[in-house]
Amino acid sequence: MVKISGQKPALSPLEQAKANPLMLGLFLPIQSGAWSPSTASRDTSWTFDYNARCTVMAEELGFDLVFGLAQWMGKGGYGGEMKFREMATDPLLVTAGLAAITRRILLVSTVHILYGWHPLHLAKFGATISEMSGGRWGLNMVTGYKKSEFEMFGLEQIEHDHRYVMADEFVTMMKRLWSEDENITLDGRFWKMKEAFIAPKPAGGKCVLVNASSSGAGLDYAVKHSDLIFVTSPAGANLDRACAALPPHTARIKQAAAAQGRDVRTLINPHVICRETEAEAWAQYDAILRHQDPVAAENFYRTFTGGDQSSWKAATREEWTIGGNVHIVGTPTQVVEGFQRLKAAGCDGVQVNFYDFLPDLKFFGERVLPIMHEAGLRLDQPLATAA
What are the residue boundaries of the Luciferase-like domain, all occurrences included (predicted)? Predict the structure, then answer.
């Protein structure tokens, strides 16, 4: 990151993001088709250039973070005529590229740490991107749950709770490499290090740690290590059902973190369909469903509602075709009201995704963000809409 001023910010990038009453993130479309297995008209692209444009626009609009998921798919992706998600870039490398063209926004990468990584590798790579970005890099730690992905790497699938036992050791080693200024020798249960060391260290002695989990073992890990926790609706994507089910879920997370003396923030992933009128917004929702790729939609739904993970189980096939964890559809005012409801349900932030990302993000900046400021959800002043 090119430093424009020698002044050091009073707050870390994470603390600056947390200062907003509702954190605001963008879920980057780094896989073909993004979250919606539909052929309805759009220009959304998985390419780095397109995602770079999304990220720069999000930063100019005042978003706090961008985030990309990771996946390992066979030829054809989830199938269908559109070969949904066959094209997929790596979020760690995408994030490194975004570091050079941004100045303020947090950049979060997903990494499947059990697919052959060593803590020393990721500690070094993370510290490097932290230096490149001025301390703005975050790791979304995932353990993986798909048997097919483990098999791609020649590995046996690991039992659910045991994956988090391994993750705890991995991340504990990584944090020590980030924070300690001497060589480290460790004979762990799963990984070993002899005279291991990295320099430079990440800003503040640690990179931002993120996790998405709903299970008991996953949340035990998350409240111990993570700064931000991506939560999912226990009741599917319908906004009313989600807001009814989320309060005890988010409260349990906050209570578990507080018991360990930690302050974590929870974020949820809404798919936002916003138009000037409610009828126009629902017409877009219907168009996505009407033009769904039935083979891709079925495979996508079956994959995410199967397996031994706890998240996403309550979402219907229709909800998976739209994409996102909860749906907010309507006018700019109705979208902000939806955000207010999620905040009241215990969500500290929203990580939004769209169907046609660049025009939808531009409209969001022009019409939704000013209302968010008026509603007290964002403290910083609205910035000019990106061109």
Answer: 24-348
